[in-house]
Specification:
This protein is mainly beta and 210 residues long. The protein contains two helices and eleven strands. Strand 5 and strand 6 form a beta hairpin. The protein is globular and about 40 Å long. The chain starts with a helix and ends in a 35-residue tail after the last strand. Bound molecules: zinc ion (ZN).
Length: 210
């Protein structure tokens, strides 16, 4: 499946790919740079599609990670924060945005969770790292199989005055989530109760018990 996802490029990218088994991550598409070397915990559900920035000529990108797992698998807050959006819309289905406050340089950080089967938190709720905020699903027109589309956004510059919630695109930069794991770039970390800086993330889908 890993080879299929890369070989068919854009066409497959748009509809997604199922990914491999637990503990696996598909390769980045060949044209994507930089590629981050990714190591997965063996009990983590697979990354079925990697980050792909928009191309210079306006080609499609994939501005987050996909995690493939069974419908109903718990989706977890990747870091502590406050829910700024929790709603259904037709394209991404049930979606949640969590604001994590400021990073060390004073830039806002937020994470986004799309295609949820159910949402367990409302706007304004405070969430802890690892807290369940919903369940994984396939709601929305852009989902053809159960997966979480997960994005990591950071303010372009300190004090860009980005509005919370649904205006997330203004002044925010979509980063490859693999840059921001609590264990370091590419070192995917399941939530195990660890503490870390608010701009460092743990896996947004529940890992299997070992
Ligand atoms: Zn996706």
């Amino acid at each position: 499946m890993r080879r299929l996802c890369s070989a068919f490029g854009i066409a497959v990218t748009l509809s997604g790919c199922m990914g491999g088994g637990y503990g696996t991550a598909v390769a980045y598409l060949p044209h994507v740079t930089p590629k981050i070397s990714v190591t997965m915990p063996s009990n983590a559900p697979p990354i079925s599609q990697q980050f792909m920035p928009l191309t210079r000529n306006g080609g499609p990108g994939h501005m987050g990670l996909d995690v493939a797992a069974a419908t109903g698998t718990p989706v977890l807050a990747a870091a502590p924060g406050r829910v700024s959006s929790s709603r259904f819309e037709p394209v991404y289905g049930n979606r949640i945005v969590v604001e994590h406050g400021l990073d060390a340089t004073g830039r806002k950080v937020q994470t986004l969770y799309f295609h949820l089967d159910s949402r367990a938190v409302a706007v304004g709720a405070r969430v802890a790292r690892g807290q369940q905020i919903g369940t994984l699903g396939e709601t929305g027109l852009l989902s053809s199989f159960p997966h979480l589309h997960f994005e990591y956004h950071r303010e372009e510059s300190p004090g860009a005055r980005v509005q919370a919630g649904d205006n997330w695109w203004q002044g925010m930069v979509q980063e490859d989530p693999n840059r921001n794991w609590v264990g370091g770039p590419g070192r995917v970390a399941c939530y195990t109760g660890q503490r870390a800086a608010r701009d460092k993330i743990t896996y947004p889908v529940a890992c299997a018990r070992r």
